[in-house]
Design brief:
- The protein is mainly alpha-helical.
- The protein folds into 2 domains: about 35 residues; about 90 residues, no CATH class.
- About 55% of the residues lie in helices and about 10% in strands.
- The protein has 7 helices and 2 strands.
- Strands 1-2 form a two-stranded antiparallel sheet.
- Helix 4 packs antiparallel against helix 6.
- The longest helix is centred in the N-terminal third of the chain and has 26 residues.
- It is flat, with a radius of gyration of 33 Å.
- The protein starts with a helix and ends with a helix.
- The mean pLDDT is about 75.
């Protein structure tokens, strides 16, 4: 049933456009019979098309924004983590909403104090993440990176990237 309706709509649409083209052919208007693309613009070269595709790629724009965020991480990792505050209430009666009838309150404040050198290690790891993120943008755009100038040896590039993150 759907196929019949589709074919019927297709035939009706084709028939609706037929008189316009026939009238245009009789009048000698070739622009309606065989429409031509505008020729005022110069042809697009391959290098221009590739450059524009790289500049306007939304994935690459998101990666570039991620790099700016990742660059802030080493500075953040050098500081202490934010303190935590917690409050607990015990023996709150079911039949009242008054907090004065509660049996016990407990308030706590905690601060994580990392061991000696741990903040520096976290900062160094974050700096390696920055290097990987900066390397990711040219790799995804198809341009060779500074470290990997040759596309003929991708295994060497992979080994360098893995050695950068300590694997």
């Amino acid at each position: 049933m759907r196929t019949r309706v589709f074919v019927w709509l297709l035939v009706c649409g084709w028939m609706a456009g037929w008189p316009d083209r026939a009238d245009a052919a009789k009048e000698g208007r070739q622009d309606l019979v065989h429409p031509q693309p505008p020729t005022s613009a110069p042809p697009l070269s391959l290098t221009d098309a590739l450059r524009e595709a790289v500049e306007k790629n939304p994935d690459l724009a998101a990666l570039k924004q991620d790099v700016t965020v990742v660059r802030q991480r080493p500075r953040q990792e050098r500081f202490l983590a934010p303190p935590m505050a917690e409050a607990q209430v015990w023996q709150w009666p079911v039949n009242t909403l008054n907090p004065n009838n509660v049996g016990m309150y407990m308030f706590m404040v905690a601060q994580e104090l990392p061991g000696r050198g741990k903040r520096d290690v976290r900062a160094a790891l974050a700096e390696k993440d920055v290097a990987l993120a900066e390397n990711d943008v040219p790799v995804r755009s198809g341009r060779p990176t500074r470290r990997c100038s040759s596309r003929a040896e991708p295994s060497k590039c992979i080994r360098r990237a893995l050695s950068c993150c300590g694997r």
